[in-house]
């Protein structure tokens, strides 16, 4: 086993200084591009929820605009496009001025938590069928005698074991039998 080198104070300072220089260089580059084009550059953030989609527009000149639109299942892209079109028009920003779009969603998380997802099976290494039930023995209220753990994400009858084994470095110790 290879030991992991620990960071020293001087290497921490050097890393921080390097990160600051990179940030300044990136900021200067963005500002230069903005001045050359004569306009600010913008980033868009999108948070897609089950009910609403939130959009935020941030300009390198400090401009900030937000918009909330209804989410559009089964095609969430429709809500994003409509919301972004409205947001850009409202802020007077050309689409070509948007240099980055990032997004996140709680739709899948909510479906899992609410049990609304597709029926799911789990194929796992032999001996690990019940790992979902064990949950690493984490109990949110250690001394609460009435705490009931929630149902597992995959019911036991839909968990299947295969006789295979992979080593810690990714080497095959015991191959799948092909059935």
Q: What's the CATH first level of the largest domain? A: Alpha Beta
The count of β-strands is 8
Question: Structural class of the helix and strand makeup?
Answer: alpha/beta
Number of domains: 3
Q: Report the end-to-end length measured between terminal Cα atoms.
A: 35 Å
Tell me the name of the CATH homologous superfamily of the largest domain.
Answer: ATPase, nucleotide binding domain
Coarse morphology: elongated
User: Would you give the CATH topology of the largest domain?
Assistant: Nucleotidyltransferase, domain 5
**Mean pLDDT across all amino acids:** 80
What percent of the residues sit in helical stretches (DSSP H or I)?
25-40%
Oligomer: single chain
**What is the succession of H and E elements?**
HEEEHEHEHEEE
Main-sheet strand order equals 3-2-1-4
Number of helices: 4
Radius of gyration in whole Å, from Cα? 25 Å
Question: Would you identify the regions where 5 or more consecutive residues have pLDDT less than 50?
Answer: 1-11, 29-37
The CATH architecture of the largest domain comes to 2-Layer Sandwich
Topology (elements, then pairings):
Elements: H1 9-37, E1 42-48, E2 52-59, E3 64-70, H2 76-91, E4 98-105, H3 107-114, E5 122-125, H4 131-134, E6 159-162, E7 165-166, E8 172-174
Parallel strand pairs: 1-4, 5-6
Antiparallel strand pairs: 1-2, 2-3, 7-8
Characterise the protein shown here.
With 179 residues, this protein is α/β, with parallel strands linked by helices. It folds into three domains: 9-38; 42-111, 2-Layer Sandwich (Nucleotidyltransferase, domain 5); 119-174, no CATH class. Helices cover 32% and strands 24% of the residues. The chain has four helices and eight strands. The protein has helices at 9-37, 76-91, 107-114, 131-134, and strands at 42-48, 52-59, 64-70, 98-105, 122-125, 159-162, 165-166, 172-174. The strands form three sheets. It has a four-stranded mixed sheet. Strands 5-6 form a two-stranded parallel ribbon. The longest helix is centred in the first third of the chain and has 29 residues, at 9-37. It is elongated and about 60 Å long. The two termini are 35 Å apart. Mean pLDDT is 80; it is low at 1-11 and 29-37.
């Amino acid at each position: 086993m290879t030991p992991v080198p620990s960071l020293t104070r001087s290497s921490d300072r050097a890393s921080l200084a390097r990160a600051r220089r990179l940030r300044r260089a990136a900021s200067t580059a963005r500002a230069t591009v903005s001045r050359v084009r004569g306009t600010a550059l913008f980033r868009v953030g999108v948070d897609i929820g089950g009910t609403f989609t939130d959009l935020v527009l941030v300009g390198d000149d400090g401009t900030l605009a937000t918009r909330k639109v209804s989410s559009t299942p089964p095609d969430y892209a429709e809500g994003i496009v409509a919301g972004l079109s409205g947001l850009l028009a409202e802020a007077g920003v050309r689409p070509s001025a948007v240099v980055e779009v990032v997004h996140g969603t709680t739709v899948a998380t909510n479906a899992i938590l609410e049990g609304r997802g597709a029926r799911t099976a789990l194929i796992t290494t032999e001996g690990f069928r019940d790992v979902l039930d064990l949950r690493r023995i984490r109990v949110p209220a250690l001394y609460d005698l009435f705490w009931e753990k929630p149902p597992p994400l995959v019911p036991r009858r839909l968990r299947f074991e295969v006789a295979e084994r992979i080593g810690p470095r990714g080497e095959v110790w015991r191959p799948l039998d092909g059935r």
